[in-house]
Amino acid sequence: MTASVFLAACVYISLVMLTLAFLLTVVRVVLGPTLPDRILALDMLVGIAIGYIAVIGVKTGFNLYIDIALALGLVGFLATVAFARFVLERGMTEEDRQEKRNKEAVS
User: Fold this and answer.
1) Residue 36: is the preceding peptide bond cis (ω within 30°)?
2) Where are the domains of the chain?
3) Which CATH code of 1.10.10.60, 2.30.30.100, 3.30.70.20, 1.10.287.3510 fits the domain covering 3-106?
4) Which band of pLDDT confidence, cut at 50, 70 and 90, is reported for residue 93?
């Protein structure tokens, strides 16, 4: 077996595994049951998309795909942080927010 045949087989196997992971993660996004579960699943979808981009980069030999995957990773991280802050703020009542502001003002 030559190296190019082995590489092609590995690329196709990884694409199949990534597709399976993508489908299972989409099921988690749809079924939930809570908002943090959905946010975690969306973050996982970003990771799977990075995997797809990396595999396509290996398959085509075009190195720019790796840079695109890195940029997507940074954007995905920032989106996850924003969603986490949203969940943190959403779970607080107005009295809790006022108490938090008072504590921050004292510090």
Assistant:
1) no
2) 3-106
3) 1.10.287.3510
4) low
Is the previous residue joined to 33 through a cis bond, with omega within 30 degrees of 0? yes
Give the C-alpha separation, 61 to 53, whole Å.
12
Model pTM?
A: 0.78
Q: Running DSSP on this structure, what letter comes out for residue 34? A: S
- What's the pLDDT tens digit per position in 33-77? 888 888 999 999 999 999 999 999 999 989 899 999 999 999 999
